Amino acid sequence: MKPIYAYGYFITLPSGDFYQVVIYEYVDTEEEFAQALRTRPKEELEIMKNNMQSYLDEEIVKINGVVTKPQVVTVKTGFRGSLKRPFTEFLIHFRGDLIRGDNLYENIYESEITTYDYSVVWIFPPNFKVVEADVGVKYEIEPENVLRFFVKKGFKIPGYEKIVFRWVF
Fold first, then answer.
1. Residues 89, 92: Cα–Cα separation, whole Å
2. Three-class SS string for 35-53?
3. Within 10 A of 123 (CB to CB), how many other CB atoms are there?
4. Residue 71 and residue 63: Cα distance in Å, rounded?
């Protein structure tokens, strides 16, 4: 099974709850994943959940300088039209104390060369504004509370992300 694309959606709430939905798309010419799900579905999902959690545990995520620990909440799987095109969807949650004015999200992780393309969308509430970002690639802010960026296969990700977002009051 080979990953071919990933989507990351971050939804931030004024309460300081951050929800992340990550969807991986794969090509599986031998349909091994479909077979594994038929024979041991609960075990496969648990393995996937544990693998994702281990990656998250290696990252250092900070909200306004305070470390928070992302947790995998659920894992779902399915197929895009064929057993050769599986996908996995992870729902992840973490929390931080937000303040009126400028807030800072930081993520420190191992630098690596990407093996598939992926896109990321950060969605903040309407009364928030993305002020600045350092995500290693070009990004766009449109509207002012939504940050988007795209990473191509073969790009060396820097191992550090920073987003400054303002709670406008």
1. 10
2. HHHHHCHHHHHHHHHHHHH
3. 15
4. 15
Cα separation, 80 vs 5, in Å, equals: 13
To the nearest 10 degrees (0 to 180), the angle between helices 32-39 and 41-58 is: 110
Which tens digit of pLDDT belongs to each residue from 133-152?
999 999 999 999 999 999 99
Which residues touch 82 (CB under 8 Å, ≥6 apart)?
Answer: none
- Residue 38 main-chain phi, psi, to 5 deg: -70, -40
- List beta partners, residue 90: 22, 75
By the 10 Å C-beta count (0-12 exposed, 13-18 middle, 19+ buried), 24 is classed as buried
Per-residue model confidence as pLDDT tens digits over 120-130:
999 999 999 99
Amino acid at 8: G
Q: Which two tokens stand for residue 43?
A: 């075990």
Using the 8-state DSSP alphabet, how is residue 55 labeled? H
Strand partners, 150: 119
Question: In the chain, what are the helix, strand and coil shares in percent, each to the nearest 5?
Answer: 15, 55, 30
Put simply, whether the predicted model's pTM sits higher than 0.90 gets the answer yes
